[in-house]
Amino acid sequence: MTTTAATPTSAVALRYGLAALAAAALNTAIGLTASALDDGGIGMGLAPVAYLPATIVGFVLGVVGWTFLAQRFPRALRVIVPGALVLTWIPDVLLLTAGATAANVVGLMLMHLVVATAVVTVGLRRLREAGGAPRG
Q1: Residue 136: exposed, middle, or buried by beta-carbon count in 10 A (0-12, 13-18, 19+)?
Q2: How many C-beta atoms lie closer than 10 Å to residue 44's C-beta?
Q3: Alpha carbon 49 to chain centroid distance?
Q4: What is the Cα–Cα distance from 129 to 104, expressed in whole angstroms?
Q5: Measured between alpha carbons, how far is 24 from 55 in angstroms, rounded to an integer?
Q6: Whole-angstrom Cα distance, residue 63 to residue 66?
Q7: Residue 114 near residue 23, CB atoms below 8 Å
Q8: 8 Å CB contact between 91 and 85
Q9: How far is 16 from 47, CA to CA, in rounded Å?
Q10: C-alpha distances in angstroms, 95 versus 19, 35, 52, 57, 133?
Q11: Rounded to whole angstroms, what are the CA distances from 97 to 66, 85, 113?
Q12: The pTM is what?
């Protein structure tokens, strides 16, 4: 009989926490850069009070969605994750009509990409540990 070593819950929680912290740190750098380049724009979503809670909420919702899909439809993740990311960019692009600059919009789009990348990074590792990750 063979046994597999399960990853301790505390290690998984630490991994998710570090991924969320890394996403928040990267989004801070993006927010600062986009704000500096947003000369005369509306600066929508570029204040820490706006993007830090959104980063954490987006990360948590992404992990919940990933977990649900990974348990039921793991192959669908290859289509749904990029599709969901593109859908999050629609409101960003629409901000151009409200007076946002390209720097503002690109900054927000990059922030969404950072959160999605953090979710996928920890999700894929967890899926591989469970033996269900699609490869290649």
Answers
A1: exposed
A2: 19
A3: 18
A4: 38
A5: 6
A6: 5
A7: yes
A8: no
A9: 24
A10: 28, 15, 19, 21, 37
A11: 32, 21, 22
A12: 0.88
112: Cβ–Cβ under 8 A, 6 or more apart, which residues? 58, 85, 88, 89, 92
> Two tokens at 55?
């980063």
Q: What is the DSSP letter of 134?
A: -
96, 105 contact by CB (below 8 A): yes
The token pair at 100 is: 């946002």
Low-confidence ranges of the chain (pLDDT < 70): 1-7, 132-136
Angle at 34 between CA 32 and CA 37, to 5 degrees: 110
Tokens of 17: 């926490």
The predicted pLDDT at position 133 comes to 57
